[in-house]
Amino acid sequence: MEVKIVKRNDCNGIIVALLKGVIDGESSQIFEKIIIDQIAGEEKKFIINLKDTDYVTSAGLRSFLVIGKLLKIRRGRIALTNFNESVREVLKMMNFDSLFAMYDTEEEACKVIGSAGHETVY
Questions:
Q1: Per residue in 64-81, is it b (16+ CB within 10 Å) or e — as a string?
Q2: Strand (E) positions, the chain?
Q3: 21-49: pLDDT as tens digits
Q4: What is the pLDDT of residues 76-107, one digit of tens each?
Q5: Hey, what's the torsion of the CAs at 14, 43, 80, 35, to 10 degrees?
Q6: What is the dihedral of CA 84, 88, 90, 93, to 10 degrees?
Q7: How many degrees, rounded to 5, is the angle at CA 38 between CA 36 and CA 42?
Q8: Closest C-alpha among 57, 36, 2 to residue 15
Q9: Which of 19, 42, 54, 88 has the fewest Cβ atoms within 10 Å of its own Cβ atom?
Q10: Are 46 and 34 in contact (CB under 8 A)?
């Protein structure tokens, strides 16, 4: 898996994590550490772009939960976007659509969680 981190200044400084490949036990630990380091650096708004993600294992789902809980404590915001059909199916099957803000595009997520008044954490 590859992780690319981009700060979108056009969207109130939201951090976008672009994930590519399979999020499994090993890669989810790398991804989780990268995001936790960003949170430790006082970042509070994240979009996880899954456009190039082939599959998410239970370890990857766990990483989403860990990051989401940490952001909840820090009063942060997170959204998942751009998932293919198999990733969407896994997220829905595990009820993540009721835990996380999920959008079809990064731009949709930007409009919602990038706005100053939005308080939904995940």
A1: beebbebbeeeebbbbbb
A2: 2-8, 14-23, 45-56, 77-81, 101-103
A3: 999 999 999 999 999 999 999 999 999 99
A4: 999 999 999 999 999 999 999 999 999 999 99
A5: 130
A6: -160
A7: 110
A8: 36
A9: 42
A10: no
Looking at the DSSP bridge assignments, the partners of residue 3 are: 19
Distance (Å, whole) CA 14 – CA 49: 12
Which CATH architecture does the domain made up of 2-113 adopt?
2-Layer Sandwich (3.30)
Could you tell me if 4 and 17 are in contact, meaning their C-beta atoms sit under 8 angstroms apart?
yes
Structure tokens at 86: 């198999």
Q: The whole model's pTM is what?
A: 0.90
